[in-house]
Amino acid sequence: MTVTTFKLKRRSNMYRKSKSNGKGTTYDLRQVVTNIKWSTDLNFSAGELTFDLIQNAHQIIPYTGDIITFRWDHHKIFYGYVFKYEVKEDNTVSVTCYDKSRYLKNQDSIVWQSGTIADRFNNVCKRAGINHKVVDKPTHKVSAEVCDGKTYFDMVKSAIVKTRIATKHMYYIYCNYDVVELRRAPYKKLKIIIGSKSAMTGFSYAVDINNTANVVKVIQKDTKKSQAKSATAKQDDPKRTSFKSASAAGKSSEQWGKLQETINKKNKANHAQMVKQAKDELRKKNRANKELTIDCIGHIDLVAGNAVTIKINDLGKTLKNCPILKAEHNFGTDYNCHLTMKVGAEWLGSS
User: pTM for this structure?
Assistant: First the structure.
């Protein structure tokens, strides 16, 4: 497989050779491009393409904002924009590009009424001026929310996390060439198997409990009002402050020891609701974090949001429909992928 097309298109009138050419000047970079790397990340990050240009007698400098299109073996891989270029003394230019979802890092202040993830997604994409599509439409409505000075990514993320907690369904944002899509994970359960004796060239399997909790306390702070008014009145007075709590504990403390986390109670929650809050948080936190990284032969469907079966003979494990959190593709004569995967039910690592 080889690079089918790799083009640069001038986006601004400033750099066009002919102002009468409405489409702008386009350059074919196939003969001068090298070190092509494409990354997709489930954790609300834009797709990234990096590459180097080997300059010759006719130098081509990609300017910020220029459009880069890339097809591999006739498959549409990337459509995006130059955000950084670096000219080096060895006569090469290193370029970093992002796809259209990069514009969801724009900040705004919006009062959201009750609605679905799709409602927020369509709204912010229109504000960012990018082509978009809802592939999998969620029905769950999240409550109204005020988002002040937050990114569009964060606004959609808030709805995605709330929907996942309520429905167990995981949604994510993915840029499909030049259209930003709202998808439900896994988007594809790939039929291919990556194994020790097939496509896998290396792996790392890590288990840790650094962010685990097997005891959760929900705290309610009570402060009696004081008649005194002084410069220190805003500080908690030990004589007038007390705490009430509700707890939930898991059996893993027998193996891991006591790992406790405290959180504040939700507004106006009674004791029974505090107990439920503790149990809900415990279900999320009382588990080891398991992360798998895989090096394998390249395949264009190995992208964030899809799932693939992994078979590792050294561990005696077969992990069916293992979620891909991040994928790095290195294109060349030796096309290969580096995958970061989550072992278990949780798709979004940072939520």
Answer: 0.84
Helices 152-167 and 117-128: angle between axes, nearest 10 degrees: 170
- Give the tens place of pLDDT for each residue, 170-183: 999 999 999 999 99
Q: What is the pLDDT of residues 97-139, one digit of tens each?
A: 999 999 999 999 999 999 999 999 999 999 999 999 999 999 9
Residue 301 · residue 194 · CB < 8 Å:
no
Tokens encoding 314: 């050294």
Torsion of CA 44, 310, 293, 152, to 10 degrees: 0
Encoded amino acid at 231, one letter: A
Which tokens is 83 given?
């955000």
Q: Residue type for 111, please?
A: V
CA distance 113 to 71: 41
User: 80 burial class (0-12, 13-18, 19+ CB within 10 angstroms)?
Assistant: buried
**Apex CA 309: angle with CA 153 and CA 300, to 5°?**
60
Dist. CA 271–CA 279, nearest whole Å: 13
